[in-house]
Amino acid sequence: MRPVVLEGHRVSLGVLLRDDLPTLWKWYNDRNVRRYLSKPHEVFFYENELEWYETIRRNREKEKVFAIITSGEWRLAGVIGLHGIDFMNRNAEVGYIIGPEHWGRGYASEAVKLILEYAFDWLNLLKVYARVFEPNVASIRVLEKNGFKLAGRLRKHQFIPEEGFVDVLIYEKLSGE
Question: Which residues in the chain land under pLDDT 70?
Answer without folding.
Answer: none
